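anyone seen this seq b4? input:
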Amino acid sequence: MKVPVSWLQRYVEVPPVDVLLARLTEIGHMVDGPLEGTAEGPVVSLEIRQNRPDCLSILGIAREVAAAFGATVREVRTVQLPDEVRHSEPVAGEDPVYFLRITGARLDGLPASMLGDLGHYGQQSLSPLVDLANYVMIELGQPLHVYAAEHIDVTSAGSRSARSGESLRLIDGRTVELSEDDLIIADKHGPLAVAGAMGGSASAVGPDQREIVVEAGHFRSHLVRRTARRYGVATESSLRSTKLVPPALPEIALSRFIALLREHGHVGECEVWRSGPAPDSHLEAISLNNNDIQRIGGAKVRPEESAEKLRSLGFTNVVLAANETLTATPPWWRTDVEHPADLIEEILRIHGYSRIPRRLSPPWPAPHRHSRRGIRRSRCGVCSAPGAMTRSSSTRSWWTASIVSKPLGKSCAWRTRRRGRVCSDHPCSRTC
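predicted toks r here
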């Protein structure tokens, strides 16, 4: 993903570029190409991991920079959507899709600074309303599609599988014959767009459009991926829709679209329609014993530091108990944090992977780890636990130990090889 530093600076204080790149690499966002120079500043190319769709946005990278350097994120301004959400009666779809109908929309053009941001990112200007939708998509990470209101019936619009014999002319000029397992946006009159990927030319918005419908959906990513690949559609929208986008993001993106349209243009009446079920945005709290960070990750981090690092990443309800147990709720934009191991990864990222020791503690206490008696005592303590100990776990190359064990109560065989001889005179070599 390309990140214009001038655009990034709108949300967070950015250090010098060399310091920025080194720190981003350390927390897991590697540089994916050379710097591009512009009059407003450099453009950084980053490799975003599959499990981090929140970082396919300028604001997502700003949150990472803020956590890495102890800065504060300047959140974007939004407005309240209409309280009443009307329900379309289409096809029964499993994907929540929102349709924002705006009457009296007017936008003569985006400011030069916003057009410059889009240009530095690599997004060409198409028309004012489409440019605004693209700006919100790159800023927040939620794909938006703008329709001409006269060509879409919001009372019956929604996502569904294509039907046999249906076809769609895309905005790139191609006409595709749809398959029955394609995920599309359609109303009672027929297909309108390939869901999450590309719109149809019949409902495209013109430069002087006054009545528009803005669509934002939370689609099943594997269906979007399959449909986009079938028709060779690789767009900025499909790049994001094929990831696990946060369920709460569509409504936030629509409210941001209205806020920018009011700021730089004019907004008349607004209506919000939704097809499909309400998105499930509930997030469960996760508990972690702070000692597990060193046991699993190899680095010792004080409990207070762990709690502070999670707060810097946007985690809420961070509680540190007396027994050094941390409990935290992931932020709404993180769909990849579900288990205690995920918390360990997040804490170690901000702590710094380079600060993890290269050597871990020896597998046995130091006085006994090389003696025959010490090896026998050690294996007695673990013979009822499944596992394997290999040469790589020792600090000496003249012996190896291996365990082949079964659950407690069944046979457990242990062999210790030392200089080519097999020793089986210990009780652990017999039935436990």
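Residues 249-264 form the longest helix (16 residues). The radius of gyration is 28 Å. kinda curious what u guys think
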